[in-house]
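ugh ok so i messed up the first submission bc i forgot one of the chains. this is the corrected input, ALL of the components this time, i swear. 1002 residues overall. if the numbers dont match what u have on ur side tell me asap before i send this to the collaborators (the ones from the other lab, u know who)
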Amino acid sequence: MSCANYLPLISRQLDGELTFSERNEIERHLAGCAGCRATQDLWRRQGTVLRGFLGKAALDESFVRKVRLARESATPTAKPSARWMPGSVVRWAQAIAALAIIAFLVAQFFPGAARYSIATVINPGEGLQVRSSGASAWMPTIAGAQLLAGDWIRNPQASAALIQLRDSSQVTLQQGTLAEIQDGPEDSAGQVLLLRGSVVSEAQSEGRNVQVRTAAGRVAGGNARFEVQVRNLSIPRLMLSDDNSEVLTGSIMPLSGVNVEKGVVRVEAAARTRDVTAGAAAFFTPSQLAVLQDYQRDAQSISVTLKSDPAIIRGGGLVSALLATDAGLHVQVRANGVPLRRLLESTTGEIVVGGEGFRVTGSLAYPVYSRQEDVVAAIGTQLGLPISLKQAVNSRTASLPSRVPLVSEAQPSSEFTIRRSAQGLLSFNFRGVSASQVFRNLRSEDVELPQLAIEDEWIPITAEASNLEPRQVLPWLEKELGMVVRDANSSVRVVHVGTPERGTRAQIPFTSTVDAAPIVAEAQIDSAGLPHSASAAGLPADSSRWWTGARSFDPMVSGGMPNLTLSDGILFGRAPGLGAGTASTASASGRLTGAQRGSRSGSRHITWPVLSSAEIAAFTVTNTSPQRIRTLWNGYDNGGRLVVQQEIVVEANTSLNLVSGRDLPQISADGGHWETVSDSPISGTGDVIIDRDLAAAVESESLPPVWEFDSNRLGSDGRLWFVNPSEEMARFVLAVISGDDAMVSQQVFLAPHMGMLWSFESLLAIHPDLGNVIPGSTIVIQAMEGSIAAGLRANAATTPARGKKGEWVH
Amino acid sequence: MGMDPSSDLVRRCADGDPLAFDCLVREYMNTVLGLAYNYVGNFHTAEDLAQETFVQAFQSISSLRDGNRFKVWLLRIARNKCIDYIRRNPRWLSIDQDQDLHKEVALKTKVDPALDRDDRADFSEADLLTALNSLRQDYREIFIMKHVDNLSYREIADLLGMTVSAVGEKLYRVRSMIRERLIETRPGSSAS
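and heres the new structure output, hopefully the right one now
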């Protein structure tokens, strides 16, 4: 018997379907046949892998809730149907057929008394869906399907769908459209209640035979072609307090627009009626109506008088309003020291990437029908920043249960309030706000949320919660709304705020761009890791130059020779006129340990303290990647104010040495700091040249919660520094630990981007007991909220202390 | 055959205990999801169909006389839901069945699969899904019923209207076809 004869048995063996004798037979064969064992293993793994794949999408308890709600809404009595007896099936079928005939006759002779066909699906596009009145689920539809009064239709796909009304008038549903089919007035062929998206109506008959109703009003036309769009307009008000708390309130207003291509349509809104002719457009809310002859031209009339405001680091806010003017409906926003990101979020409702640190003051006004691209570009032009809308990918998608009731009537204006406490806790109250607006407003409070499924964006949400941490909001939504989140990529729009173009000057202090090339010259850096060797050939003999080098210093350099070979580490250069003495000095500055360098893989965020404005500091950034990296250097004073910003490009496989006062401006305050932001990881080291001691470069993309320092290092001249390199308030506890006992502890708050530099004396000022530091004790800094970068600088030669997570500190 | 623990839940549900049905949903939701996914190819729609399946099951559970057969009965509802869905959404009927049949015939003509085997089990999830998706829908279905729904040959036979021996034969054929496709896609293999 060949192996081929055994394979069917192996298959059945895996399924547990063999008889006893068959099982013995196959086991004997498998024991001696490696080929069949391999096949058995492969077949077994087929099932394992498949189960693993499907297991990723495994349903959980939220599905049980969804089913429960669906069956309750499907059967109000929530009880299974009565048991029927054998033989009754035929009678049921007869009864159903009789009812169908009666329903048909009623519909024919008494149109108002029953649901009857209003429209027919001509082309369902890629996925027009229908939800029958009273049903709980959306079903795909096909060409020829009849749409009854009370049926909901939605088109989540990119291709348009086409339906035809009773009088052959046609309505095209664009992507994202959600509408209810309604009977409409007597003189109409049918009515579409448009809740989301846009429809193009091609009315065939005279009169007002195609009616499109929206939450803001009604549009009717006969023998005309017109497009109706609806969207929600957010009118926010944001109050930021000095203690980092804030209140975001606003109303969501339904906005509709009609653009007439042919014929005349009648618009009823805001208790008025206007006829709109071909070529013109009308925009309306429940309280305002404006007719425009050339709205596309007017859409360009965007007014921006914003300027950046580096003086304001906390507080501020914005107010906005919808104004009806001769030029149409305009949104007006007045900002006072509000973060640029918040302004953009309020204006577009989209996620904003970049733009940290900018605050703006001034006003912005734009027509409601302006394209978002044009609005953000106008803001960017005014501020000297490239701002644009881009596509991004969100890898998680959220969907709401279909049991959320559909609204059969237009939604009135809805309102929301979000409060953020000084401790960062969120309380919110949404009343009838569409799910997409709920997501947008919560995202503006730094709540990370998945992308909402397009078909669920319109669902009205009423929700209230108190004192949630931002990370608790998503689980709260899942629990309270039955929201389901799954891994699925979806395309999202984001507002991208770029860095200023090289050589341009933004409105905040912005110095000229430094080109890396002249500084690094021909330095060769080993990109396999951080450099262990470097050679620099052809360096100019200009003694004012600083260059990268090696820890093990070649004396040849002391003579200012243009050619040198260096090894084992990084050299920070030499000062003019210091000669040979500099060589040994620079060598000493190699207290950067191999462990420190080797343990770091780079960071997109580096914090460098400015321990003394009188010192000349050197900052070394190393790009070990094969691509050039743009870095943005934000200089903050000791109050957390952004005082200078500079872009520096670090070429591929290059180490760049920057010197304060030459390549970077001096920050004229002790306790200030630099924060370097880059798109790709870089590594950094710092040095203070004059004092010949080590300053710090903390790779702050991910900071440890605990920092520890040997108290012996503080001494009388040592300085302890802290920086909060984030946008959130940080709170930490400083404690002196001796043995297992905390001798003293002190809670400290640090505002965003604020730094502190403490000497031994300032510690005493904070708490007298801190003067009783026992030699050999440990200074511990424990972050309680947010994160901080910290370091201890001693003038004496020291070794780095180790953070709890293994990061080296100075 | 012992009593299926579901049968007690079915009885309690028919008696009006709403919590009992929740237990049944928990027990079988991923089974139904797997079956529906095989038909529609995306989890979102599969979940919608699973939900509809359970709602219909709840409404007509009183008609189920033998609680021991709940699983097969439930999957039959799910299968009908999926078939309805596919009929209304022809986009899913794009599988080139002729091509599949051609490959099937080619497979059967191999003299002895054991002679030229490369049965290293080092294939990826993507490899398996690609291979599975290249099969005819009814082949995928029986494979999922076995591996995901963990149905016995008897249960599959009841559900699909086949004989027990035909189920075994078909599963063997599906496994062999998947194996062939996995080998074909390996780097350096000469796909036939």
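quick check: Chain A touches chain B through 62 residues (CB under 8 Å). that seems consistent at least. The mean pLDDT of chain A is 70.
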